[in-house]
Amino acid sequence: MSYLSATNMTGGYGKADILHDCTLTVDKGQIAVIVGPNGAGKSTAMKAVFGMLGLRAGQVTLDGTDISALSPQDRVKKGMGFVPQVNNVFPTMTVEENLEMGAFIRNDNYRVTMEQVFDLFPILKDKRRQNAGELSGGQRQQVAVGRALMTQPKLLMLDEPTAGVSPIVMDELFDRIIEVARTGISILMVEQNARQALEIADKGYVLVQGANKYTDTGQALLADPDVRRTFLGG
Amino acid sequence: MSNTRQAAETSRLRAPLFFAIMTALIVLEGVTSGWNSALGILNMGLISAIMALGVNMQWGYAGLFNAGAMGFVALGGLAPVLISMPPTQGAFKAGGFGLIVAFIIAAIAVLAAVWLYKRLHGLARGLAVAAVLIVGFFAYRFFLDPAVSAIEAINPSAAGNLGGLGLPTLISWPVGAILAAGAAWLVGKTALGLRSDYLAIATLGIAEILVAVLKNEQWLDRGVLNVNGIPRPWPVPYEINLQNSQAFVAQMQAWGIDPTLGSTITVKLAFLVLFVVVILVLLWLTEMSLRSPWGRMMRAIRDNEISAAAMGKNITRRHLQIFVLGSAVIGLAGAMMISLDGQMTPSSYNPLRYTFLILVMVIVGGSGSNWGAILGGVLIWYVWVKAGDWGPDIMGLLASPFPDGPFKAHMIASAAHMRMLVMGVILLGVLRFSPRGLLPEK
Amino acid sequence: MDIINALVAVTNYVIIPATAYGAQLALGALGVTLIYSILRFSNFAHGDTMAFGTGVTILITWGFQAMGISFGPLPTALLALPFGIVITSALMLGTDRVVYRYYRRVRAAPVVMVMVSVGVMFVMNALTRFLIGVDQINFDDGARFIINARQWREMTGLTEPLTLRSTQVITVVTAVIVVAALFWFLGRTRTGKSMRAFSDNEDLALLSGIDPNKVVAVTWIITGALATIAGTLYGLDKSFKAFTYFQLLLPIFASAIVGGIGNPVGAIAGGFVISFSEVGLTYAWKKVVTYLIPNWEPDGLVQLLSTDYKYAVSFTILILVLIFKPTGLFKGKIV
């Protein structure tokens, strides 16, 4: 069984379902990417995995334990880390304080983890005393990822981490995400930049209208002519 | 299915039921404490109901929190003084010219400052605007101060103010509405369109200032010296005239009523008829407007500002409209109240009584419901008056087990404040358990 | 010499009173701004909370005085203050439990919360009146002056007197201590930082495992303490009257908004902006003018505004800020 396995998820916000029998799995240390057209339910699927959405059917297990009934906060304690797409930092707090807040639920010494985050994102170390709200878009995303890493998650979920950043910054962010995955953390990520994201993906999901349309390795999806034509613009 | 019909049935019976209860309470008051007291409560209750109608337009239709109803009530109350009081002999001659010049200077200075603000930039703008305002202020005071002293010197024990125009009192009612509307336009123009509670804070401020003006500008309304003997509106008679009228006395004696008592009740009934007419007109207007496309749009904006804005509605403009209209109704009530009292006492304006109590009326009656505002107005006014009466009794009962001494004395002395507690508890209770009020909006 | 006399007059009638008043407003505005940042509404009950806290402190002061306990040259009220804070904060927590918590759970709109705070205002108003009545109360004991007019004249030989009342110094010293403690708490402690995080981004704070109930409870405790301290200092400096405290709501809100609502530094700056404007504009400058311009005696008092219009000053500054810089002098929260 995969490290994260969210199977047959069906549900939505109101009466109408957004997700229809959607299944997402990620193995240990792997990068899984969810792509698809606008309104396909990508972010919704991610939120369902994180427990921010009531599911009518389906099950979410993490490392073999059923976490379907847990609140997002409890899922964080179980080893999930979540980086929302927007509003994902504390703008009037310093970078260091942001990371500290990330470690709020930890009672042990988090200094080592903070050093690891600084190693991963050296720029943050230089700007540790600066308010997160004053940083550039790319740096702010690094703070957001760093904050989520402070709980030492086993699974890191990123909702469009490269939205609104320049291509150069995007490449750098993807490099960092690969580095994170190499340390054994599983990654589940929603991405608009489908082509670049699939290139680094061990596993890719193409969602259409809340259902799995294609599921394969990232490379295979990139090579699939149907996927290329319909979703990657040729 | 049957359930929904039942619900519709109860909601249809709800309004008559509550109005019947209200009537019963007033009748009970008439039987137990006399009809003068009952009609007194009812008349003031109806005036409060009109204030509540105005606040309901703002809070109920549009979700605007006006924390300064007191100011508009007070400003409306200025109208009877300025319109229906006789002019003070020689006052205008003594200071009228100075006043007019002063106000023209003030208007020119403000307009010039606005114009400069729009034309210039940077440091020059700040300096020029400040210079114009400072020079304008001193010029204004240069003309105003002597004019004010001259007016206040005329017969200070009885007048010392400009006096009024000597016109019929009824005319002052719409004028009160216009005065309030003008002030509301100024406040709304600046504070609307910002965070919702900024309007509350701005109106809280303007109310304090308006009352401060009424308290201090003696040349205008004699300030804390009060204006007495404001003429009654047509066709309300004076008690003394009735008592001197042979026909009236004969009629009362024929009915077996003491003529003095009869005269006071006749006066109150005449006011009552006048107020009921005003309320019916307002109700008709407000109900019509609520059902019109304009009213539907208002509610659409209140219920979902974002989607209304997306549909191209200019929300700030609509809010300004409703805020001005609601304040006009509050000002009308303020003018009516002064006509009823026959005197203007600026120091009696208290925000708890004239701002926050009115809000309680609106919320208890049912936000957005005009009938609810009227019910809430009369009912809450009744409770407010009666809580003042019952407070000492209840406190006396509570204090009876304690031995005589300072503690017991303190308890009984504090009973007068019971009504504050009652109002707070009612407001919190309604907000929590019945947020749509007694007569919910349909 | 006349220039020095003018300076002394300005210090005596403007700078010293405005500094004390500004410190009181700042403490009040800090309470308003904290509630605004964490609970996200303008608390109309704050003035009456100050009145309640002061009322309790006065009662305890009287108790101490009856028992013969005093604080030497300092006012006994300072000894009573901690007890007043505990009782007021407990009342705040109780109010939150009985009233506000429900509206947080249903995620009520801010304007509904404001309305709820009006209900609380009525109840607090009644409690204060039950407790201590509506009359004006002076409860300042201890040494009245640090410098009085006669000492000053003997010391300096100037004609212009200068007095420094002990309550003014106590106000400023206490305010500095309280503000320093508050900033230390918000900036250095885990709980304080979690409050700032909650204020910055509630959803993210919840995701990070910050307990909202604890944050809210601590906020009410601090607000109760700030309100009691601000109210007691104001009462010591001037006098206590329940209705005056309700009226303080306007300058306090104005201070918070002028500084940038939700921003504690702004609340303090705003308090002094309002107090100096209010005192400066309502002061009769005749004396100063006479010192500065020899051989000229102005006719009037050279008073820009009568003191009855002091609320107009707060209001005008408030309106100017709302028009030209809605986020306040120091960037406040969303407009």
In short:
Chain B is mostly helical and 442 residues long.
Task: Please write out the topology.
The complex is a heterotrimer of chains A (234), B (442) and C (335).
Chain A: E1 4-11, E2 19-26, E3 31-35, H1 42-50, E4 55-62, E5 65-66, H2 72-77, E6 80-83, H3 95-102, H4 111-120, H5 122-126, H6 137-149, E7 155-159, H7 167-182, E8 186-190, H8 194-200, E9 203-208, E10 211-216, H9 218-223, H10 225-231
Parallel strand pairs in A: 3-8, 3-9, 6-7, 7-8
Antiparallel strand pairs in A: 1-2, 1-4, 4-5, 9-10
Chain B: H1 2-33, H2 35-62, H3 69-84, H4 91-119, H5 122-153, H6 169-191, H7 196-216, H8 218-221, H9 239-244, H10 246-255, H11 259-291, H12 293-303, H13 305-310, H14 315-341, H15 351-365, H16 370-399, H17 406-413, H18 418-433
Helix pairs in contact in B: 1-2, 1-16, 2-11, 2-14, 2-15, 2-16, 3-6, 3-7, 3-14, 3-15, 4-5, 6-14, 11-12, 15-16, 15-18, 16-17, 16-18
Chain C: H1 2-39, H2 46-67, H3 76-105, H4 110-132, E1 145-147, H5 149-156, E2 164-165, H6 166-188, H7 190-200, H8 202-207, H9 212-237, H10 242-247, H11 249-259, H12 264-282, H13 286-292, H14 310-324
Give an overview in words.
- The complex is a heterotrimer of chains A (234), B (442) and C (335).
- Chain A has helices at residues 42-50, 72-77, 95-102, 111-120, 122-126, 137-149, 167-182, 194-200, 218-223, 225-231, and strands spanning 4-11, 19-26, 31-35, 55-62, 65-66, 80-83, 155-159, 186-190, 203-208, 211-216.
- Chain A is built from 10 helices and 10 strands.
- Helix content of chain A is 37%, strand content 24%.
- Chain A has a domain at 1-79 and 188-227: P-loop containing nucleotide triphosphate hydrolases (Rossmann fold, 3-Layer(aba) Sandwich).
- In chain A, the strands form 2 sheets. Chain A has a 6-stranded mixed sheet with strand order 6-7-8-3-9-10, with helices on both faces. A 4-stranded antiparallel sheet of chain A has the order 2-1-4-5, covered by helices on one side.
- Helices cover 79% and strands 0% of the residues of chain B.
- Chain B contains 18 helices and no strands.
- By secondary structure, chain B is mostly helical.
- Chain C has 335 residues and is an all-alpha fold.
- Chain C has one domain: ABC transporter involved in vitamin B12 uptake, BtuC (Orthogonal Bundle), CATH 1.10.3470.
- A two-stranded antiparallel ribbon of chain C has the order 1-2.
- In chain C, helix 1 packs parallel to helix 6, helix 1 crosses helix 11 and helix 2 (46-67) crosses helix 9.
- Chain C is globular and about 70 Å long.
- Chains B and C meet through helix 7, helix 15 and helix 18 of B and helix 4, helix 11 and helix 14 of C.
- Chain C: Keywords: Amino-acid transport, Cell inner membrane, Cell membrane, Membrane, Transmembrane, Transmembrane helix, Transport.
- Chain C: It comes from Thioclava dalianensis.
- Chain C: It is found in: Cell membrane.
- Chain C: It holds the Pfam family BPD_transp_2.
